[in-house]
Amino acid sequence: MKIIGLLGGMSWESSAEYYRIINQLMRDRLGGLHSARCLMWSFDFAEVEALQHARRWDDATALMIEATRRLERGGADVVVICTNTMHRMADAVQAAIGIPVLHIADPTAERIKGAGLGRVGLLGTAFTMEQDFYKGRLVARHGLEVLVPEEADRATVHRIIYDELVQGRVEPASRAAYREIIARLVDRGAEAVILGCTEIMLLVKPEDSPVPLFDTTAIHAEAAVEYSLAGL
Question: What is the CATH code for 105-215?
């Protein structure tokens, strides 16, 4: 079993889900009392969030590289960045270490294509929805067509993530707002919706959408388990 290095704390609400899902899958795959061999580096998210909203991406990248090097020195065989947004610097992190970074967008795209779908809506932080590091990978590497909400809806999605979900708040009114935003994406032709922030799965469930939802937290965690067990 390869050792999974989890880069977490962004926020810890979703990092806890990664840990739970990975260990449940290990038990399901191997049986008995088996669990994952893993390490976690957990950030103080207040520090990371401040850098994000100040657009200090170079400083955030330096933090990410330092943390992944700690995981590598600790014996990790693969790095799993437990957040969609901070894949903005995944290439820089990969270049700085000698073990692979398992990019969250790749298994997500493969799952979508495996379902025979090609046009998807994307929900996430404003950084993920508006910048090209995530959408561009889905388009260029995987041939998907990606739709994002209109500006006002993007602001709502982003606000709920930072003001509520990363603080452990799950509000019925926010679930209703997300349902409406998903419906508008479907009206524009989305065949499925990517939950492209690892906290959204705390709020939105399959019954909240008329089209399939692709939960990046669960998909990424499963990909980590598959990597860990490959060759066994």
Answer: 3.40.50.1860
| CA distance readout (Å), 107 to 31, 104, 135, 157 | 24, 6, 14, 23
Q: pTM for this one?
A: 0.94
Q: Which of 197, 198, 216, 217 is catalytic?
A: 197
Cα–Cα nearest to 139, from 150, 148, 127, 152: 148
Asked if 82 is an active-site residue, the reply is no
Task: Write out the two tokens for 116.
Answer: 């025979």
CATH fold match for the domains 4-103+219-229 and 105-215:
yes
* 83 catalytic residue (yes or no): yes
Among residues 83, 108, 128, 198, the one annotated as catalytic is 83
Question: Between β-strands 119-123 and 38-42, what pairing exists: parallel, antiparallel or unpaired?
Answer: unpaired
- Domain limits, the chain: 4-103+219-229, 105-215
Helical residues (DSSP H) of the chain, grouped into ranges: 12-30, 45-53, 57-74, 90-96, 105-114, 126-130, 132-142, 151-163, 172-187, 216-229
> First CA to last CA across the chain, in angstroms?
7
Tokens of 96: 């700085």
pLDDT tens digits along 28-49: 999 999 999 999 999 999 999 9
Task: Note the pLDDT tens digit of each residue in 78-100.
Answer: 999 999 999 999 999 999 999 99
Answer whether CATH 3.40.50.1860 is correct for domain 4-103+219-229. Answer: yes
CA quadruple 91, 95, 97, 100: dihedral, nearest 10: 50
